[in-house]
Amino acid sequence: MSRSVHARVPLVLLMFAAIVSTMLAQSSGTVEERRARIEAGLLPATGRGAAKAPAMRLDERMVFYKVPAVSVAVIDDGRLAWAHAWGVANSDTKASVTTYTMFQAASISKPVAAMVSLKAVQDRRFGLDQDINTILKSWKLPDGSGKDGSPAVTPRMLMSHTSGTGDAFGFPGYDPGTPLPTLQQILDGDKPSNLRAVRLERQPGSGFEYSGGAVLIQQLALAEATGKPFAQLAHDTVLGPLEMTNSTFEQPLPAGRASHAARAHGRMGQRMGAPWHVYPEQAAAGLWTTATDLARFAIEVQLATQGRSERVLSATMAREMVTPVGVGPFAVGFEMAKQGEGWYFMHSGSNWGFQCDLTAHRSKGYGAVIMANGDNGGAVIAELRRMIQQEYKWDVLDEPIPRRYGPT
Question: Is 195 exposed, middle or buried (0-12, 13-18, 19+ CB in 10 A)?
């Protein structure tokens, strides 16, 4: 009798699991139903009474904030659940946006560039904790070689914003057709660069300050260590292997891709003087991509850190991207935030006329990428992200995941 009772237990458990699975499927609905709920249920992202505010439609919020286009890719269970785009890529021509329309990723360029650098570390081109001035050839970081007993600046510091370089500014970019500075000119603040020089302002490793200039130092070191232009290296080692076919670090954007690119728009939803700005600061701000391609990138980080993929990095190397360095909130490339039962890795971006955000859970297999072609895109992004969090039952439901740094 005892054996027969025990024999029936697994069957009972299986039946119960099947019932629960059916109920969950019915409650969540199809992909189209879930997307429709997100479209129709936007709420203010913050503030008292936000949960009691009436739900609003995405198209209404885009009109309210004067954002011409939004493109979204949602990650669930370590896979691309769906991607969709709303609005127009160009408010003058009314050309519709699609999931293949490229947007400027702005500062989300940085974690993608970090993967390129970590692949070079994995290939033993240089060390993650090597003195950066022993890697650089054509340019050296002044006072950055461990003089007077201070720590040397390293690639790990540069990519986690703990190097001591003090530039917290954004990159304004350049009108198409105008002369572009070299990396060395940008780092020294020499014309035609429109930025001040990148220099140490505190002891390396002593604190956190977001620094796009630090990422440019790493870009130069990477190119000189490998002997390849950065855009080519990024394609060969990351974009190509991850099938990010609608992505490029090429600056200016090649003419053949221009018809697939969204145009920049201002705070009133108007086209700006130029179709977009050009960013020779490729690793820090120069990636053109889609929400779908960035979702592929985020999924690879999730899988690689769990040892389930090695298309680019080993598990050990991938975990450098999601392990805080101990000073500040950043790992090598991503900002990290502890929420609920686990860690999120994330990055946002803000270029001239573009806004975007990538947020993903390190271990639970969910996340989202949202891109917009308007200066007010951040407001729509915040509301969309909150609704996606609720629909897919992320750990964070009521409060926004913090962002501790400024724009590109």
Answer: buried
